[in-house]
Amino acid sequence: MKKNSIFETQRLILRPVKTEDAAFILQLMNTPKWIQFIGDRNVKTVKEAEIYIQGKVFPQLEKYGYTNNVIIRKEDDTKLGTCGLYHREDREDPDIGFAFLPQYEGKGYASEASHQLMVTAKDDYGLTELSAYTLEENTSSRQLLERLGFSLKGIGSLPNDNAELLHYHRKLDF
Is 0.85 topped by the overall pTM? Predict the structure, then answer.
């Protein structure tokens, strides 16, 4: 299992989130779609974003070798969004998630990053299956998951969250 790995696609670099990304994470977490579809995490300052990264990103990276990644466009080093694998203690298989700043949506970045992360999950982390969770009204995420080969498994929820979510699943059999 690799830790702190950096992965590349034709247009993108994926690397684990660092505390130096706190200002970017703060901006991303406070976009209207993040708040609507992921939820308000009450992160309102750069310092709170640093604490969030240290408390959520680093422990998972240390324990499992994977976590949330910043997606960076190669041509100009612009941070576009995040895409990550999340291990939840009460789940058998990790789930994949993604979020992008509004100006970078609809350009194929989420698909490109997610596909690379699925390959990495299989090849580098030995994972055989992934889940994904999204709100029913988040049609763009649902469409992306279906293009990535995920199938709707049913209704679910995440720990410490009462929201009813669509639970998607995919075997990493490519």
Answer: yes
Backbone dihedral angles phi then psi of residue 138, each to the nearest 5 degrees: -85, 75
2-25: pLDDT as tens digits: 555 899 999 999 999 999 999 999
Q: Give, as one character, the DSSP assignment of residue 104.
A: G
Q: Give the count of beta carbons closer than 10 Å to the beta carbon of residue 172.
A: 17
Map residue 78 onto helix, strand or coil. Answer: strand
Burial code (b: 16+ CB inside 10 Å, e: under 16) for 26-47 equals bebbebebbeebbeeeebeeee
| Amino acid (one-letter) located at 6 | I
What's the mean pLDDT when you consider all of the chain?
94
What domains, with CATH codes, occur in the chain?
Answer: 7-127 (3.40.630.30)
Beta-carbon contacts of residue 77 (< 8 Å; ≥ 6 apart): none
What is the arithmetic mean of pLDDT over 138-165?
Answer: 92
Beta strands 68-73 and 78-86, pairing class? antiparallel
